[in-house]
Amino acid sequence: MNKGKNIMATLIRTTFVKVLTPAQGGKISVCGLIQNRSIMGKALRESLPPPPPKPAPFDYVNKDYTWIRSLFDRTTHRFDENTKVVVVEGPVAASKTEFAKSLAEDLGMKHYPEANMDIHYIRPNGCDLRMFDSQIPEDTRTFDHVDFNRNPNHRLAGNFQIMMYTARYQQYIDALAHLLNTGQGVVLERSPYSDFVFLEAMFHQKYISKGVRSVYYELRNNTIEELMRPHLVIYLDVPVPKVMEAIKCRNLEHEVNGKALTQEFLTEVERQYKTKYLRDISTHAELLVYDWSGGGEVEVVVEDIERLNFEQYTEREEPKMKDWRIPREVEWADQRKLYTNSKHYLMNLLGIPRLDVPELITSADDAYEREKVIYGHPEFQYMEGYTEKESGLLTKNKIPKYYEYV
């Protein structure tokens, strides 16, 4: 087996790791720092004695985490070395999903596939709002990544990117709620922190207007500080020519024949990642960057992660891991209550009252036509969670508390 192909060609690890290129042996050299182990992979966990028992996961989907509960149910009592937020980043067609799923399995974490427009369009009753597109005005129709790839200059492209940020933001809240209520770490594909790289690439290609860009950043600035930044970001680096080859290889019609994923667009995505996002997020999170042109082995990445010491940043003014240095149990409880009970409050922060960008506004007449069609359908006759029995009385079905605000 060619070691150079199976070990990353490039690895950025802030402050203490040096990586040798494949020509130099492709090995990692730890530069004069003795580390304590932090995140542990499956093989390492199985080689150690069983850990002490922890409280069972809290059923945050159906129950609120109240002040009374917080007196007896301590958040940190479920934490262990793997109670971490890991985000996998990379360009289109970089095999992020396969990698993130395998990584989560090895680390014993929950995998969150990349957020998409299904979060908005597939309702709790199982209906997909796309089924109404042929019956409603064009400005009120659904517009997802397939539509964007086919027609990136469409009037709805700006709204699509704002809704993608909203989807990532919502998913990240869900991930934080899961971590704080169960103690299980999470692995996400992309996050609201990196979403702007696509907005900037769209703006660079003139797919969206300055007005859309302005609304996006106003919305982002109003919401992003409510979240807790990840512990670790893993960037799978694939050069643009290789990305274009991968797009052709997976042969999705809307990507291959679409107008969005041009070389210029993909190059701008790469530039935004490398010059802005990775630089900024590395001030808080640990950062690993791999040359993923020919793929790689998850086991090798796990070994690299095990060498990281997330507990070394203890100074009060140290920016690294600042969001996770919470000194008191009552403050952990406050964060847990925020993401468990107040998702509706966090989502309401997305309501920016901007009326100066025409492509983000739907006329009252079009909105009325849309509502008339959708809520005239039998599946939407009653409020979500309710149904009508033979007696004619409305009765409430049991639907998870945590999804009432979706």
From TrEMBL:
A single GO BP: mitochondrial electron transport, NADH to ubiquinone
Residues annotated as transmembrane: none
Obligatory cofactor(s): FAD
GO cellular component terms attached to this protein's record: mitochondrion
Taxonomy, superkingdom: Eukaryota
InterPro entries hit by this protein: Deoxyribonucleoside_kinase (IPR050566), DNK_dom (IPR031314), NDUFA10 (IPR015828)
Location relative to the cell: Mitochondrion matrix
UniProt keyword terms in alphabetical order: Electron transport, FAD, Flavoprotein, Mitochondrion, Respiratory chain, Transit peptide, Transport
Every Deoxynucleoside kinase domain range: 87-321
Pfam family, one: dNK
Function: Accessory subunit of the mitochondrial membrane respiratory chain NADH dehydrogenase (Complex I), that is believed not to be involved in catalysis. Complex I functions in the transfer of electrons from NADH to the respiratory chain. The immediate electron acceptor for the enzyme is believed to be ubiquinone.
Family to which the UniProt record says this protein belongs: Belongs to the complex I NDUFA10 subunit family.
Protein name from the UniProt record: NADH dehydrogenase [ubiquinone] 1 alpha subcomplex subunit 10, mitochondrial
Organism of origin: Parnassius apollo (Apollo butterfly)
